[in-house]
Amino acid sequence: MEKKQFSVIGLGRFGGSICKELYSIGHEVMAIDLSEDKVEEYGEYSTHAIQLDSTDERSLINVGIRNFDEVIVAIGDDIQASVLTTLLLKELGIKKVVVKAQNDYHHKVLEKIGADVIVHPEYETAKRVAHNLSSDTLIDFIDLSEEYSIAELLATSKMNNRSLAELDIRAKYGVTVLAYKDQDHVNIAPSPDDLIQRGTILVVMGHKSGLERFENTAF
Ligand code: ATP
To answer: Where is the RCK N-terminal domain (predicted)?
Structure first.
């Protein structure tokens, strides 16, 4: 793994978890917060933990923020501080600024001022959990766009011992099987003769309507 340098600004639940996770994976992480208590708490979960107000350009420059390729802005309630921090970071030339948005208005402003990635963690987690709860076969999914997704689906007994050719998934649903997983073995770009067993995990990509039809009829 390539070791990267990240800075996380705002050590609430979201920023704090990102900081801990990046640091435990082995990246260099500079953690920043306005609160002295937070900085003390995150000393052991980051490479450096620094107390400063990220809306102050001078302070950001002084801690060398320009040496970081990726900065995560996880300031929640103070939308003005989140927007101003993002603006300063883009002006200072940070290549990738990832920002947690509180609501749609915040999102729109962040888009306008050049935030590179905007995340809504509560909404995204809720959507994922709701999908998983509503289906016995859907394990996980990634939205590629408004229309296309990749999904992991658990094969049921209806598919047991049937080949991919027999299941004819692409012709019937317009869905492509990218890979399948049996126990710990992952088969990428499978052949049409490969047999699917109950419990196999299929990794499929396609239009959301096709994926939905596939999930509702083939499983
Ligand atoms: P979460 O839901 O992830 O816990 P939150 O919405 O509760 O987040 P806040 O508590 O509002 O988020 O903010 C997260 C952190 O950002 C806080 O620890 C706060 O001290 C810090 N913070 C707020 N403003 C600034 C600022 N100007 N500079 C640096 N840190 C800041």
So the answer is: 3-119
Pairwise CA distance, residues 155 & 120, whole Å: 31
Most informative mutation of 9, 20, 34 for ligand 1 (most atoms within 8 A of CB): 34
Residue 78 CA to ligand 1 center (angstroms) comes to: 7
**What is 5-134's CATH superfamily?**
NAD(P)-binding Rossmann-like Domain (3.40.50.720)
Q: Which CATH superfamily does the domain covering 138-218 fall into?
A: Regulator of K+ conductance, C-terminal domain (3.30.70.1450)
Q: pTM for this structure?
A: 0.79
Which of 39, 40, 75 is the best mutation target for the ligand 1 pocket, counting ligand atoms within 8 Å of the beta carbon and taking the most?
A: 75
